[in-house]
């Protein structure tokens, strides 16, 4: 049997990794995973709780381990957490184990898409626009560094973005 291939979605909060990842997996009949959801499953607690109790450092340790484990698989679509790329080990791991697709959007869209969601603890203390700008400055080069493909999600539906990824990766 031919080796199954993996697609890993990276990018900032609200870029659409979870939404587009699910859509992509459905279309390609691949298994879908989401590192944030997997952390919640393993801890039995939500992301905000993990940040509260273990701090961001504790969360990042869990995130690295979850991504390592999930990338052992073949034939999956994985939506990663927005900050997972700050780990060099995770960047190397994603590059080595599948196609890395960077979902890019504007800060304005990120603010609008994350406005009513309490699952993103980093946006709870301060002005979301400013926080997202600061994160973009430090993280965008890391997304770019490992991206095999960059796709804009600001003006297209999840379905259209998903079709574009399939076409451009030749899956
Ligand atoms: N292409 C799109 N067009 C319009 N709305 C979208 C699009 N993609 C995602 N959304 C909406 O934006 C919100 C955030 O999307 P999603 O949770 O998929 O982002 P994410 O990249 O997984 O973020 P995080 O890094 O925080 O997990 C959801 O309400 C989703 O329905
Ligand atoms: O950008 C980030 O650092 C985060 C993004 C989300 O996917 C979650 O992993 C968490 O809210 C942290
Ligand atoms: Mg997500």
How would you describe this structure to a colleague?
By secondary structure, the protein is α/β, with parallel strands linked by helices. It has a single domain, classed as P-loop containing nucleotide triphosphate hydrolases (Rossmann fold), CATH 3.40.50.300. It is 55% helix and 13% strand. It contains 7 helices and 5 strands; from the N terminus they run E-H-E-H-H-E-H-E-H-H-E-H. It has a 5-stranded parallel beta sheet with strand order 2-3-1-4-5, with helices on both faces. The protein is globular and about 40 Å long. The model has no long low-confidence stretch (mean pLDDT 95). Bound molecules: adenosine-5'-triphosphate (ATP), (3R,4S,5R)-3,4,5-trihydroxycyclohex-1-ENE-1-carboxylic acid and magnesium ion. Magnesium ion binds next to helix 1.
Average of pLDDT: 95
Global structural class: alpha/beta
* Sheet with the most strands: spatial strand order: 2-3-1-4-5
Radius of gyration: 15 Å
Strand proportion, as a percent range, falls in: 5-15%
Binding site for substrate: 36, 60, 82, 139
EC number: 2.7.1.71
Keywords: Amino-acid biosynthesis, Aromatic amino acid biosynthesis, ATP-binding, Cytoplasm, Kinase, Magnesium, Metal-binding, Nucleotide-binding, Transferase
Function: Catalyzes the specific phosphorylation of the 3-hydroxyl group of shikimic acid using ATP as a cosubstrate.
């Amino acid at each position: 049997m031919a080796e199954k291939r993996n697609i890993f979605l990276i990018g900032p909060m609200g870029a659409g990794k979870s939404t587009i990842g699910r859509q992509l997996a459905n279309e390609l009949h691949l298994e879908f995973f989401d590192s944030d959801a997997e952390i919640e499953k393993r801890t039995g607690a939500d992301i905000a709780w993990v940040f509260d109790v273990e701090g961001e450092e504790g969360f990042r340790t869990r995130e690295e381990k979850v991504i390592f484990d999930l990338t052992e698989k073949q034939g999956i679509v994985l939506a990663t957490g927005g900050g997972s790329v700050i780990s060099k080990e995770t960047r190397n791991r994603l590059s080595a184990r599948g196609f890395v697709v960077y979902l890019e959007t504007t800060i304005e869209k990120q603010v609008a898409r994350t406005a009513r969601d309490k699952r993103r603890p980093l946006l709870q203390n301060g002005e979301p626009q400013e926080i997202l700008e600061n994160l973009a400055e430090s993280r965008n080069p890391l997304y770019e560094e490992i991206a095999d493909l960059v796709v804009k999600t600001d003006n297209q539906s999840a379905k259209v973005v998903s079709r574009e990824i399939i076409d451009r990766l030749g899956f």
